[in-house]
Amino acid sequence: MNLESGKLDRREAIRMVFAAAATISVLNQQSFGATPLPAQPYGTDALLRKDYKPGDFWPLTLSDEQKVTTRALADLILPEDDTSVAASKVGVVDFIDEWISAPYELQQTDRKRVLDGLRWLEAESRKRFLKTFADLNRTDQSSIADDICNLGSARSEFKIPAEFFAAFRNLTAGGYYATQKGWKDIGYVGNVVLFQFPGPPRTVLEKLGLEKN
Amino acid sequence: MPIITSSKSKISYDVIVVGSGAAGSQTAYTLTMGGAKVLMLEAGRDYDPVKETPMFQTNAQAPLAASNTPDKHFGFHDATVDGGWRVPNEPYYVKRAGQSGWQEGTDWIAPGSNQNWMWWRSRMLGGRTNHWGRISLRMGPYDFKPRSRDGLGLDWPINYSDLAPYYDKVELLIGVYGSNEGMENTPDSSPGTLLEPPKPHAHELYSKKMCASLGIPFMPIHRAVLSVKQDHVNAPAKLHPGNERAQKIIAKHMQLRAACFWATPCGRGCSTRANYQSTTVHLPPALETGNLDIVPNAMVREVTTNGAGKATGIIYIDKISGQEVSAKGRIIVLAASGCESARILLNSQSKLFPNGLGNSSGKVGRYLMDTVGASVSGQIPALENLPPHNTDGAGTHYYAPWWLYKEQLAGKLNFARGYHIEPGGGRDMPGMGIAEDVAKITGGGYGKKFKEDMRRYYGSFVNYDGRGEMIPNENSYCEIDPERKDKWGIPVLRFHFQWSDHEINQAAHMHKTFKDMIGAMGGRVTSVVETDGRKAIYPPGAIIHEVGTTCIGADPKNSVLNLWCQAWDVNNLYVTDGGPFVSNADKNPTLSIMALAWRSADHMLDELKKGNI
Fold this sequence. Notes:
heterodimer; A: 213 residues; mainly alpha; disordered N terminus; B: 613 residues; alpha/beta; FAD/NAD(P)-binding domain; 4-stranded antiparallel β-sheet
């Protein structure tokens, strides 16, 4: 996947048209994810030394409407702040699309949870504010999110949406902090050549009350 | 690499080696450096880590952020090719808790797996050495004589002193960092053998400081990674005394290996040859001798024998053509992994050997062992908001060897054997679980506060993994399934397995200890602490320390191999993988497999010279 670039090339555009067509049949099902996707696993011997992007192995399947909701929720979970950009700016929407479109059991379970959750979110948004979730202001979005953002303390009628929110947050953060911008935000400074392993810096040792070794 | 196809192989070889992992490659290395002509058969494809290893690839560049899938059980960038908990077209059969009959082994994370044995295989040149953990601990004197010490399990027919010179040689050859600490039953290496250990990580140092009050002794671990370049001037003569050609070849290859540059996880393999995998360390010099032919995609079915009861060669299936191929050798070495070697022996049936080759004792397949594993995770407030610093490179730097020998011998513990502790933590490349960990502490949340939480808690999580000794028992074994075959028409294995109370109680002890450690560090436990060891212990096979099944012994009536890993029944047949093990100390087995294989290969060279074989 290539989370960094938000660019849409011709190949991807064609793929999205195909994916959108595939999604219609999925959306018509009683339960999301009940129909097998036209997706193949990447197999036990994929080329590893390569830079992949969403859609390289299997078609993406989120509808345009689902993408709009996904973008709004991902950016509510990881908004722009003084340190770093919002989730959608590093390709998290495509990453979530790749995830829930994947042909593996775990991802198929997440697919049902995410698609059901997005639908619940839109219904709840219309019920409370007569608008789509993406069109709500941050305060109104938060009033829904506050009810479902803590799985342990969510009220019983919000348990299932709270499970969705937790899964969605895991995907959003997993995709976000996998990128270089995410690394910079969280303070991951590895994946670089060192000629010697320096051990923890003095500031770290002092903070932990450890003598310098 | 000059890898050949079956049609290019010679009529006959001095030795045929089945398998190209730690055992097969060490055996072939020693034999070819000693002048023997060797054919190596590997069931998987050719593999070149120098060209194929994804060294600096990021999670964001892989599908699903490189997370585990049924195709890549340890994540997209893991070195394992065509393998894992299941291998396409090569099933094995297990019992599942709550279900009757035999079931095909699948994936241990699959819901409801509950398998009585998990069998990790790698179908590729170099086998499991391409991705292994590189932890290289010597077995100690107690570990060779456990029955004499506490009355349980089996004694080896050799002592630590028999293997010590070979531990030195293997460590010198492959490159192992670590230190000599003089700990009980945790042997020191000879001076000049180990490479300088890397400095500990913050969480390792903090574990050491805060857990000292519990008596837990953290110290440098030993791992097969070049923390510095090898001593190509002095080491070759120690490895191959009197053999100038071998010295010259290994000196050259030591110079070709780079020192670790402290980045990219070892489990991906290493294109600069800085860590040990057979494909970068054993096989290049062995091939350079001109004495080694390697045929990949060669799925071995059986060892052939003649009317005099000698092994004559191997029949394998060339997976490319599907043809059956026969290869001849004066000596046959099985190094295909404990269970796979047992499978080949049990499938080598003839009039003279109706129960399988080398199986007059009935012990082939018996005493299957894994390592006891259990883990507890926690979050340490002292580690929150640490200044960003780089903790990549060469995995674990510290560990705690077993520290309660005296208490155990005095009967103060309800289990007989020890375990060591591997601490996990640090500021690794972020993975998919990163938000879930934080949610365990904060409950979840979102928005700017969630981003602040992510920064605050990143690097503050630790986990402690216990790796403990299993005692061999009569209820744990593999056998041939009488009905089922793999794609190649070869009968497959099915598994019987039971832990004893010793392993169960040990796992419970691990959980309690790790909980106490996290407490001593002022932290909170974030996983479930079990008091019932049955719930704490990892599924059998999950640690991938598959040993036993072709036991070594002093008596042909109750063992398969003699002290040279040579079959009692057939003197030109050897098994040099984990199969000979009759105890499985908490010391991860790969280093011992290689030391045993070197010793065994020296014996083969002697016997060939003397004309005894």
